[in-house]
Every structure is written in C-alpha cells, then in structure tokens.
C-alpha cells in the first residue's frame, strides 16, 4: 500500500511540474513537501541524498514505474531521460512535412467494452501517419503508433513530436525511441489539454463518420474498418477546410511541389481552384 501511494504521488508530481527531472531532490521536495523528504541515511548510500515517498525510496518507485518528467535541460549520465520542451509545438511555424507530429489517444466503444486508439498526425497536412488499436491503455499502444509512423515516413533529424503528459508518452520505452531517432519532444502546458486540437478533430471525425455509423463484430473487425477509414478515406479523399478543401495526401503533394516558401499559396490555390496550379 505504501509503494502504491508513493507511486501515485510521484506520478502526480511529474505531471504537474516541468522544470526539473525525476529523482532530483530539489524537484521532488519542492513539488510535494508534505510527502517527500530528503534523507542522508548511510544505509542508503554514503555521501548521497535520497528521497523518501511514504517511506519508500523515490528512485525505486521511479525505476519500477518507468516515469520521467518534462524538463528544459539536458541531464547527462542518466538513462531514460530526454529534453522536453513545454509547448514548443505552439511556437513553431510549420512549413513542410515531417517537421511536427502530434500524438494523442482516445477510446472507442466496442460492444460491451472500451478499446483505445492512438494516432500520430503530421501537423502540416493533418495526415494520419501512424496509428494503433488495443484493448489496453499502455505504453505499448502509443509506441506501436509511433513505430508505425516512423516506418511509413522515415523522417530526418529535426522532427518535433508533441503530445499531452499522459504516462504512455512519458514511459522510458517511448522516450528511448524518440531519442533514438533524434526527435525533439514537446508536451502540453500543465492544465492545458487543448494542445492537440488536430488529433481531437480527427477523433471527432472518426467517431461521427465511421464509428457511430457502423457495427463491428469484434476488435479485429473494428481494426480493419478503421484502417480502411484512415488509409482509404480520411488521408486520401476527405476534404479539409484548413487545407483549402483538399485531402491530406493532395495537400502534401502540392506542398512538396512548391517547397517551403509557398505553403500559404498552396492553401489559397487549392481553395480557389480545387487543384494545385503550377
């Protein structure tokens, strides 16, 4: 029970404060001074400071839960950490594909159970570049969606990945994948769940135009029809007002043809003429 309470308190602290890394004594003591306290007990390590959470070592809870916190600074010599920028995505001017990806998770009602859908969208075109469906809301779900996006897009260095502060996106396996591909991590500001508006818009469209209008035998039937919706309709055929009433695939083709200098021109031309004009 004490370890469960410590784990919960540590998770809450990590999700609410962005300026220090996990297992940092100043960070934890400042987060929840009534719950965290420092100790220099020689039995825990001579000359080292440790954090006790409900009598449990904070480093042990952190290792078991595989959690990290958002930070503005690199900390060297520590495994499982990555620099995270608060709302970097909101300050970017996206001029091409694979510059900014946004990721989120939503639920889908299936017969008598809820299943979970994770997606990764390219901010420029609103194209779904990776997705995954699972019965369990775990880091495996979000990581599968990310790996799908990496396989289909093969982005270069400099890509920014934006998500909320859900533990699925703060898990060490997910963070490790971002680091492996030199992807810059951006997270929502605390208490600002509206940072992933493009993903939320996609989920609303999916539920309105597919889920609420369909019937599904089981999870695999749902997976097949979501695949058809995303790959066959949403990405290739559905028109988006923000893209000059073109589909994501069409908008990307038009954007590539003009390079980074004419994104606004692409939108205007597609809006007025319905196709890219050379």
Low-pLDDT stretches are 14-33, 35-80, 264-278
Structural class: alpha/beta
**CATH fold topology of one domain:** Nucleotidyltransferase, domain 5
Q: Count helical runs.
A: 10
The CATH architecture classification of one domain is 2-Layer Sandwich
Largest sheet: 6 strands, mixed
The CATH superfamily of one domain is known as: Ribonuclease H-like superfamily/Ribonuclease H
Rg of Cα set: 21 Å
Q: Output mean pLDDT.
A: 75
Termini separation (Å)? 66 Å
- Cα shape: globular
Strand order of the largest sheet: 4-9-8-5-6-7
Order of helices and strands: HHEEEHEEEEHEHHEHHHH
Report on this structure.
This protein is an alpha/beta fold. The chain is 40% helix and 18% strand. It is built from 10 helices and 9 strands. The strands form 2 sheets. A 6-stranded mixed sheet has the order 4-9-8-5-6-7, sandwiched between helices. A 3-stranded antiparallel sheet has the order 1-2-3. Strand 6 and strand 7 form a beta hairpin. Helix 1 crosses helix 3 and helix 9 packs across helix 10. The termini are far apart. The C terminus is likely disordered.
């Amino acid at each position: 029970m004490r370890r469960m309470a410590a784990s919960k308190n540590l998770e809450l602290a990590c999700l609410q404060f962005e300026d220090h890394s996990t297992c940092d004594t100043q960070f934890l003591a400042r987060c929840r001074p009534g719950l965290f306290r420092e100790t220099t007990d020689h039995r825990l390590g001579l000359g080292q400071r440790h954090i006790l959470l409900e009598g449990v070592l904070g480093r042990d809870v952190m290792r078991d839960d595989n959690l990290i916190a958002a930070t503005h600074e690199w900390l060297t010599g520590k495994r499982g950490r990555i620099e995270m920028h608060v709302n970097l995505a909101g300050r970017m001017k996206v001029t091409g594909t694979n510059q900014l990806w946004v990721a989120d998770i939503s639920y889908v009602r299936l017969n008598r159970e809820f299943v979970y859908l994770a997606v990764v969208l390219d901010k420029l075109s609103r194209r779904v570049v990776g997705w995954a469906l699972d019965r369990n809301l775990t880091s495996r779900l979000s990581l599968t969606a990310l790996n799908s996006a990496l396989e289909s897009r093969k982005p270069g260095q400099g890509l920014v990945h934006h998500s909320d502060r859900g533990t699925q996106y703060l898990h060490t396996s997910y963070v490790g994948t971002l680091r492996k591909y030199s992807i810059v991590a951006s997270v929502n500001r605390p208490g600002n769940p509206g940072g992933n508006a493009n993903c939320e818009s996609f989920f609303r469209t999916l539920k309105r135009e597919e889920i609420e209008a369909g019937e599904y035998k089981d999870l695999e039937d749902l997976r097949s029809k979501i695949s058809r919706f995303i790959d066959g309709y949403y990405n290739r055929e559905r028109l988006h007002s923000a893209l000059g009433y073109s589909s994501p695939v069409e908008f990307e083709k038009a954007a590539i043809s003009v390079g980074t200098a004419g994104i606004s021109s692409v939108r205007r031309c597609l809006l007025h003429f319905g196709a890219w004009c050379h």
